[in-house]
Amino acid sequence: MTGLHKSPDFGFSLDFAQHRAYVPGDAPKFIDWTVLARQDKYLTKQFEAESNLRAYFLLDSSASMHGSAGAKWSCAVRQIALSAALLSKQRDALGLLDVRAGEEVLFEAKNTEDAMEQLLLHLANRCELSVGNGSMVAATERLLSQIPPRSEVIVLTDVYHEDLQAFTTRLGALVDAGHFVKLVLLVSREEELDAQFYAGSFVADAETGTKTMLSLKDAEGLNAFVEGQIQIVKEQSALYGMRYTVLEVEDNPLHSFRKIIS
User: Do the beta carbons of residue 139 and residue 41 sit within 8 Å?
Assistant: First the structure.
């Protein structure tokens, strides 16, 4: 089935791409006879091909994504649902690797209604709190070995990684393998970018449940940490040729979706 996207390869369509020198064995019907008559050069025409898009979401289902009443998790699920609606209309394939502590669930990229429904049903049944963090580095290695060439990989995660540089380095390996990678960071404008939000409040660790009082200095430290992690992603994305964007969970879902597909 012909897709709706331009392929990086040359194929058969009505859209002319470029000339190249004729070599023995080329079909005579692709020779540009006008150029031959004017310049006495044998050139063949190449045309743009069309292809189907394969999009894989790498979803971080760690405990931090389920904190703050699950705002980040809800934001991520909405973006996947919107993508499923768009991709199905374009006859494109959608896949998912859902990562949480001790468990990875992989849906191969397919463009059937049943496959989309199963993927979304899985997400609807995963709203329970996750305790602990899965290995996003290991999950990236799995994608690198299993997904078809020239896939699009969209990563939905937050800034809480023990070694963010190691994770982005493995995402860079996906780029080197010919995949298109976009890293989407989910942050809370109110809770993580505003130092006043937690100052003087009791907070609970999403993984251990331990409660502690945060001073203004502690809250400012959280703000600095989040901004520092965003800066690391910005630098690593430029280094490895990835795209990245920051989504604030308080924004309108459609506004956030435009950032993902831009």
Answer: no
- The predicted structure's pLDDT at residue 49: 47
Residues 246-253 have a mean pLDDT of 94
Residue 222 has pLDDT above 90, yes or no: no
> What whole-number distance in Å separates Cα of residue 174 and Cα of residue 171?
5
Q: What is the DSSP string of 142-180?
A: HHHHHSPTT-EEEEEE-S--TTHHHHHHHHHHHHHTT-E
Among 109, 111, 239, 84, smallest CA distance to 175 is for 239
- Domain positions in the chain are 5-51, 54-261
What residues contact residue 124 under an 8 Å CB cut-off, 6+ apart? none
Name the one residue in this structure whose structure tokens are 């009505």. 14
What single letter denotes the amino acid at residue 52?
A: N
Which CATH number is 54-261 given?
3.40.50.410
